[in-house]
Structure formats: structure tokens, C-alpha cells
Amino acid sequence: MSDIRVRIAPSPTGPLHIGTARTALFNYLFARHNDGTFIVRLEDTDVVRSSIAYEKDILDGLHWLGLTWDEGPDVAGDADHGAFGPYRQMERLPIYREAAARLLAADLAYPCYCTPEELEADRRRQEAAHQPPRYSGRCARLTPAERAAFEAEGRVAALRFRVPEGVISFDDMIRGRVEIDTANLGGDFVIVRADRTPLYHFTVVIDDAAMRISHVIRGEDHLSNTPKHILLFRALGEAEPAFGHLPLILNPDRTKMSKRKSQTAIGDYIAEGFVREAMVNYLALLGWSTGTEEEVLSLEALVERFDVAHVQKAGAVFDRERLEWLNGQWIRRLPPDDVIDRLRPFLEAELAAGRIDRIPTDEEIRALLPVIQERLPTLGAIGDLIGFLFVDEVAVDVSVFPTKRWDLGTTHEALSAARDVIASVGQVSYEADELEPPLRRLAEERGWKAGDLFMAIRVAVTGRTA
RNA sequence: GCCCCCAUCGUCUAGAGGCCUAGGACGCCACCCUUUCAAGGUGGAGAUCAGGGGUUCGAAUCCCCUUGGGGGCACCA
Fold first, then answer.
1. Which of A44, A311, A348, A432 could form a disulfide with A50 if both were Cys (CB 3.0 to 4.6 A apart)?
2. Cis omega before residue A86 (within 30°)?
């Protein structure tokens, strides 16, 4: 095991997002390729929006993808494991409290008594003046007497970190050297709320330091925040990890992928019948490539080939068509028993929805596999493909019969004739050459195209044209 | 508004100065196969490498500017 330690730190304030899943995957690939440690940490300090249901969705989703982690909680609500725990931030409050006290004692942070209303007014004024939003620094130099006065007023203070002057620079694993002047950070920022709960920028740094995270690999939306983190690492007397900022996943209009414009919940893709192999394969290739022309790659193959050098810098539009193509590729590659297992929940859903009257047996599905495996874009398409076989009565909508060459009269006539031919053949084993030759003969005698006859029979028997 | 990041076919990308009259994949269009639908095979359309300056014998590749796009600027994460 190397010293490389990386983490995915999702916030259980929503279901597992495509972007979080990809960040988790890249961290996983980086860790496994380098014989490092992959950690899951839950950032649940936003108590109002966090929930155990989301925690479950996230953990289950990561398991579904096949990303195993070495430290962290495995099951929602359950205990975690690893030498650097706990791995839920709400269980680490004393650690943050101690760190906050240290910064306060060293005057690296100070109590701020500004009310939300005052801050909001400042912000509005700055916006009106076309100024960038920035904390006024009103509470930065309060005398003990002034603080006491605010306290006497009943005001409760938040804790603000003093942002020093200077330029922060770091070598991003993906972007190279990045420099940002601390003057552009928006002034002293809050690290502990008035209600004593710590904020993200604070906890993320304390935990990354405490958990000995060596490489912080995350989305590009955090790039501008990195100087704040570096400042905090320094104030805390901790070594800074390496940073790598992944390109964002984009909506079709090239804005940051969002629930509003795209399907972002991994759970929704699972429900549609995307298989994990395809999802992992697709996500890995969104913003990264092997540098070769290989496209269909298993998680193991990805681990073997992963390198930061081939990570793209520009954002990548999420392309569902390509995901579907990969899904088809993977469904075709799955072993029969595996497909049968994975199909079952979707068949059960068909039954529950009343679209079929019974669930096919494993043997029935196995017999169908040769004709359905290469036709499934998603597992959820199974009902459309074989549903007609498992309903008590096939409903045939007359309008489904093609009328390009045949009118309904001809269709009816042809079906009657075909029925006679089939009856005359008698007992059959349904091998292809038992019914086809006599039906072809019938078509030839009547001057019909065999394809038209077969289409009529297909619709009459299955209720569908495919 | 300020700061930061980015820029090769519609999309995902290969390309790390000459191998590029820019390659692959998805999608699209033909054709083949074919009893429909798929799958598969073959071929095609599709990028003056955002634009303009440099550097160089030589630039998609290096530098600068412009333009365009994105992200960040919370007592959210």
C-alpha cells in the first residue's frame, strides 16, 4: 500500500449525482492504480438538508458502481471503519471545535457579530455599485469592550477566518500552476456559524489533514475555493495535499450539469436499466481517455490504464446516446445467468404495472436470450421486447398493420390463407424450416411479397411490428 | 461587476513541432446481410484545429492578444 490517500466526500443533501459518481470514480481509479487508499467521508454538516435517505442513496449508488472503499461507512446509518474515523462530519464536531478555538486564540480568526440582514444589505450595496461581493471587515478589529457590548445585546457571533494579503499559488495535477490573489477571495470568510456548526471550507480542510489525504481530486467548481483551503491548511499548521480539478460535466447547453436540465441522479439511470459496467465505462471516458482507441473498458481495465495526464481540462457534455450505446455493448457482453438475474427486477416491475400477467421462468428467459440480448438498449426495455409472450391475451390493434402495400382487406385475406396453410402443416416443433417454406409458397402463388405476409402474421400473433 | 479556468467534427475524444491533405467513437446518411426490429459489415457526409499576431526551415501542438464559453465570489456543499 502506498502513501496515496484520496477521498470522495459527498454531502447527503440529495441523491447520488452523476458528477459525484464520476469524481468518486476518478478518485477510485487513481487510488487503485497507485496502490493507494480510497476513502468515503460524509459531509453532513448542513443538518437541515441532510438526510439518512440520501445517505443511503449515495452509499448504495457507490456500491452499485462497484467502487469499493477502504475507509468510511458502508451502510447508511451504520458504523464506519478505518483508522481515521469517524467518517461522518457531524460525529467530528469536537475536532472542529478544538481547531476553531486554536485559530481564535492565535487571532487567526475572530468573532463576527454581523446579522444576516446587515450582510445582505452590504451585498446589495456592492451589487448596486457593480462591486464584487466582499465582507466589509466590520468586526475584524473590534475591541474587547465592543465585543462585550454586542454580547450584552444578545448577539451570537459567527467565527471568521482572517484572510491575509498575498498571492496563493499551487500546482494543480490537471491544470498546472494556478495563482490567485487573496484580495479576490471576498474578504474574511465564516468558518463557524453563529449556531456553532462548522462550515464546509473549514471542515474539509481539517478532515483532509486529519485523514492524511494526499491528493484532493474534485470538480473544477472548487478551483476558486482552493486558496481558501490552502490558507486554512497553513493556519492550522498542516501540510497541504496536492490538488487536481476535474473538468465539469455539462448540460447540452454547456452549463454545469444540473437537475433542471439533465437527469442527474444515478438512481434514475439504474431504474431505467443501465448496467454498472456501462455507467463506469462511460463516466471514465467523460473527461479522460486512454490515449488509445480503446473504448469498451471494464473497471479493472480502467484501473490498469488510468493516468492523470490524459484527464481533459475542458468541460464535457453528457451524451446519453453514447451511454446507451455502451450500455448495449455491455449487455451483450454479460454472461447469460447474469443477464437473467439483472432482468428479474424489471420483469417484476412489468408485472406490477400490469403490463404482463406472469413472470417468465429463468429457463424461458434463457431460451429468449439469443434474440433479446443484442436488442436491449437498457434492461428496462425488456417488457417492450418480450411482454407479448407473457400476457394471457394478446391485444391486436388493427391500426398497427402496415398499409403501405396492403389494405386491410388483403391483410385479412392473407391471414386466412396463412391460417389454412399452417393448419395443413399440422404438428410442428417450431423449427424455422417447418412453416416458412409452405408460407413462402403461398405468397408466391398469390403474387405477394413474402415479407408482407410475414409482417401480417407477426402483427396478428404478437400485436407488434417488431 | 471582480477573479480563476477553458477552447480539435453536432457530441466524447486522439494529437505532447515535422508521421496530420487532422485519426477513432457516438449520432446521422447510404449500401450489404435480412421475414420486421436490432446486431454486425462496408462506405459517406461532418473540424480552413475559435480568430488574429508572433517564435520556428516547419505549429492543431510554443508565446501574446482578441473573441467565445464555463466556474467561483453564502452563517450551501
1. A44
2. yes
